[in-house]
Amino acid sequence: MSKKIYLYGNWKMNMTAAETKKFFDEFAGVYKPASDLEVGVFSPFTSLWALAEGAKKCGVVFGAQNAYYEAKGAFTGEVSIPMLAEIGVTHVILGHSERRHIFGEPDEMIAKKVKAVLDAGMIPVLCYGETLEEREGGNTFKVMERQLKSALEGLKPEEVAKIIYAYEPVWAIGTGKSATSEQAQEVCEWSRKLIGDPKVVILYGGSVKGSNAKELLSMKDIDGALVGGASLKPGSFLEIYTAYKN
């Protein structure tokens, strides 16, 4: 029996509400639900209403790309978890490398966000990964141990188990470069041991597409993919799953 595959699409700062509606009009015609597949889409905040409508019709997970840990207050430009919950959002991406490196979010802030999302009964998709400089300096596992331990500190085992983990080497995001299947498997296996729960869901992200999907998703400790550019079109997005199956 083949394992369940989690195929999550991070649209980043792409897709207006109108484009989101068009995506799901097309997606509904080609998507065939399967018992061993969970599809999720994470849109910009302004497209979440359109995403909610399309995702519900198609039966896929819909989530946000970020959230702030305070429920309300003087935090101009931020979006709270209760605001997301009101729309029906169930999953939130946290700690993405672009949040860490472009916007300077520290480990401590990400940990607060993880706890706040869990407290709201939602599922964090926790991203972690090393830069090229960190990998070449031999610090890959040191960096990720810091990122993961900070985010999980103080959580109950059942909370740790609920999180979906996404290993994304920073040097492979949006660059066209992908970690080899062996590199990705090594980190995901190591992550599972560090987390201390063999059943947690661990995704790989970083230039995943149809051409490399089978090799990556066939690895024992990779449960799915967090997809960037290839998730913007239904065909290239779903091709990742079909490539793995065929």
Topology:
Layout: E1 5-10, H1 17-30, E2 37-43, H2 48-58, E3 61-64, H3 81-87, E4 91-94, H4 97-101, H5 107-119, E5 123-128, H6 132-136, H7 140-152, H8 157-162, E6 164-167, H9 181-195, E7 201-205, H10 210-217, E8 224-227, H11 234-245
Overall morphology: globular
Q: What does the radius of gyration come to?
A: 17 Å
What is the fourth-level CATH superfamily?
Aldolase class I
Look up the CATH topology: TIM Barrel
Give a summary of the structure in a few sentences.
With 246 residues, the chain is of the alpha/beta class. The protein has helices at 17-30, 48-58, 81-87, 97-101, 107-119, 132-136, 140-152, 157-162, 181-195, 210-217, 234-245, and strands at 5-10, 37-43, 61-64, 91-94, 123-128, 164-167, 201-205, 224-227. Helix 2 links the parallel strand 2 and strand 3.
Q: Which descriptors would you attach to this protein?
A:
246 residues; 11 helices; alpha/beta; 16% strand; 8-stranded parallel β-barrel; TIM Barrel
Report on the architecture of this protein.
The model has no long low-confidence stretch (mean pLDDT 96). The chain is globular and about 45 Å long. By secondary structure, it is an alpha/beta fold. The chain has helices at 17-30, 48-58, 81-87, 97-101, 107-119, 132-136, 140-152, 157-162, 181-195, 210-217, 234-245, and strands spanning 5-10, 37-43, 61-64, 91-94, 123-128, 164-167, 201-205, 224-227. It contains eleven helices and eight strands. It has one domain: Aldolase class I (TIM Barrel). Helices cover 44% and strands 16% of the residues. Strands 1-2-3-4-5-6-7-8 form an eight-stranded parallel barrel, surrounded by six helices.
